[in-house]
Amino acid sequence: MSFLAFFLSLWCALAHAVDTTGVLKVRANASGAEVWIDGALVGTAPVTKYIAAGSHKLRVVADNFEPFVRSVEITADHTTEVEATLVPGPGSVEFTGPKGAAVWIGGQRYAVPARIPSPGPGKLAYRGEAPGFETAELALDVVKGRNHLVDLVLESSANMLAVNSTPAGAKVFLDGAEVGVTPFKMKGLPPGPHGVEVRAEGYASSFRPADNNGTDRVGIEAKLAKGGASLTLSGLGSDSSVSVNGALVGKGETVKVALVERGKHTVTVTEGEHVATGLLEFPASGAVLAKVQGDTVVASKPLTESWAFWAAVGGGAAVVTGGVVGVAMATAPPEPATGDVVMVLP
Fold it and tell me: How far is 131 from 272, CA to CA, in rounded Å?
């Protein structure tokens, strides 16, 4: 491109920019009044400024005066003059923020944008919230007579994981890795399915799925229970992995989990490309033995429900090193189930 062609293109661009701007002149009756345009401070009155054609929010403020707030329409190649007449006032607090935002002050909700009279000097506590953002507890140091402008800068909830528990201070495991303690908050949760375990000493672990769609906050509230049942899976492949409700709990040929909270939980065993899953019922105490049967994880029959066990102990008591396991005849199965092998001792 020749220099002349470059100069002409630059001149046309500048000419086009001039064609799409206008001039705004602002004067005020209060000395040192600040002039804000679209939330940005541009100087103290009087102000003359080129701005893009269109609608703009003008804000003129001075201490001990009520704010002067107007919407002004700027026309290309024209000058718009505004005379801001300020009246005495106690000051104010004005809030701006994302679409749908609100602030809570002393139990009162104000939709943003909002302006409230100054509550007087001191610290003003408020809570900011907006759809798609994390709620924040904030505070402002209010100066007597000052007109404060507060822009709510909230943290996006997208890809956010938040875990709370009762009691607090429980360990949080994400996909089998310890990531913190409750109350816990993490940014950058990768999109897709995840599993969370919440574990505390003396309580049954809580296992929750944490599926992240990439836009919403993933929140987990876990109320940990004292009672729970253990889980044992054995006879697995050496490269097997076991998860409960999507949370990784162990790998290898035998996987044991100390305590799982009472209720129905999805147990999944993955070995290479083979996946087996099942919905198991966990009691408030005791143990759950499970095994892989084809594509399903099923609960194994407890030993005392097997006729092989009863044949072995003769319907009496089985003496175990370190203690005695009492076997009541009344609890024995009434007859062998079809397919059971009856063992007869010599």
Answer: 41
The CATH number of the domain covering residues in 160-223: 2.60.40.1120
Q: What is the mean pLDDT of residues 167-191?
A: 95
pLDDT in tens, 204-248: 999 999 999 988 899 999 999 998 999 999 999 999 999 999 999
For the chain, the structural domain boundaries read 18-84, 92-151, 160-223, 228-300, 303-346
Cα separation, 63 vs 147, in Å, equals 6
Distances from the Cα of 67 to the Cα of 35, 59, 72, 87, 314, angstroms: 10, 7, 15, 8, 93
Which structure tokens are listed for 329? 């005849």
Give yes or no for a cis peptide into 209 (omega within 30° of 0): no
Q: Whose CA is closest to 148, among 68, 61, 36, 30?
A: 61
Other Cβ atoms within 10 Å of 144 Cβ, number: 12
State how far the Cα of 225 lies from the Cα of 223, in Å rounded to an integer: 7
- CB environment 35-60: b (16+ within 10 A), e (fewer): bbbeeeebebbebeeebeeeebebbb
- Rounded to whole angstroms, the Cα distance separating 256 from 192 reads 26
Tokens of 191: 């999109």
Query: CATH topology of 18-84 equal to that of 160-223?
Result: yes
228-300: CATH topology is Immunoglobulin-like (2.60.40)
Determine the pLDDT at residue 129.
96
Which candidate, 300, 244, 288, 289, places its Cα nearest to that of 270? 244
> pLDDT grade, residue 7 (50/70/90)?
low
Summarize pLDDT for 292-316 with one digit per residue, the tens: 999 999 998 654 454 444 444 454 4
Instruction: Tell me the CATH number of domain 18-84, given options 3.40.50.720, 2.60.40.1120, 1.10.10.10, 2.130.10.10.
Output: 2.60.40.1120
Binned at pLDDT 50, 70 and 90, residue 345 comes out as very low
